[in-house]
Design a protein that fits this description.
By secondary structure, this protein is mostly loops. Residues 1-46 are annotated as: Disordered.
């Protein structure tokens, strides 16, 4: 029998009030450092 293990996520960053941030975000001042995503090309049947 094959034993499948999932990837364990790392710790979430904390917000200023101490609660963990639910997801990572790119702040507006850092936005120009990251390229935009390529447009998605949907192929029928997949």
């Amino acid at each position: 029998m094959i034993n499948i293990k999932s990837i364990k996520p790392g710790p979430k960053p904390k917000k200023e009030d101490g609660t963990p941030d639910r997801r990572r975000r790119v702040t507006p001042e850092k936005k120009e450092d990251y390229p935009t995503l390529k447009p998605h090309k949907h192929t029928p049947g997949h």
